[in-house]
Write a structure and sequence with these properties.
The chain contains nine helices and no strands. It is mainly α. It has two domains: 80 residues, no CATH class; 88 residues, no CATH class. Helix 3 packs antiparallel against helix 7. The radius of gyration is 24 Å and the shape is elongated. It starts with a helix and ends in an 11-residue tail after the last helix.
């Protein structure tokens, strides 16, 4: 993901605000960001597929090396993975990554003073931990979708440039005709 797109998918994107707020946005930049957003959304949607028991097992196998009380035997481990896979079945495969495992291990004390990351997770604890990452992934998908909905911005920019190059025939194209949300955005001059 390019810097342009990563800026654009932030909740209060400086780039997206700049593109929407520009009086004459740059059509090639609008198209570039749009094309990157389409690819990024496809990648994100692939990582939003539900995780498989194999992916969960691999994540948990690595966790065993760091916690105080991993399952004692291979059978116990398979049973633990099966229970976690059942509880966490709707979590996307994108949450079963190193970052979330490290985050689990770095968890500080809970309200009772217990340090959850030091121990093998209860399925509900793990679900609560990983569902925050799943929600963040969904929010990122929604942000990318907002970027994808901006081709009207490029159409407005092109119409404005064509109008300016054509000797000002008729009234100038209005942003509101292309970008309804622009009614609330202040145009920088």
């Amino acid at each position: 993901m390019s810097q342009s797109l990563s800026l654009a998918v932030r909740p209060h994107s400086a780039l997206l605000a700049q593109l929407i707020g520009q009086h004459d946005p740059d059509p090639p930049l609008c198209r570039q960001v749009h094309e990157e957003a389409v690819q990024a959304l496809a990648d994100m949607r692939r990582s939003m597929r539900p995780g498989t028991p194999g992916e969960m097992g691999a994540w948990l196998t690595r966790l065993c090396k760091f916690v105080a009380n991993p399952p004692a035997s291979e059978t116990d481990f398979r049973d633990a993975v099966a229970v976690i896979a059942e509880i966490c079945a709707d979590l996307p495969q994108g949450v079963w990554v190193r970052e979330t495992r490290v985050s689990w291990l770095q968890k500080g004390p809970d309200a009772s003073g217990r340090i959850p990351g030091k121990f093998w997770p209860y399925p509900a604890e793990l679900y609560a931990h990983l569902s925050g990452y799943a929600a963040a992934m969904e929010a990122q998908c929604q942000a990318i979708e907002r970027v994808i909905q901006q081709p009207a911005l490029a159409a407005y920019a092109t119409a404005r440039r064509n109008w300016a190059a054509g000797g000002h025939e008729g009234p100038a194209p209005k942003r509101e005709d292309f970008i309804p949300e622009a009614r609330d955005v202040r145009v920088s001059r």
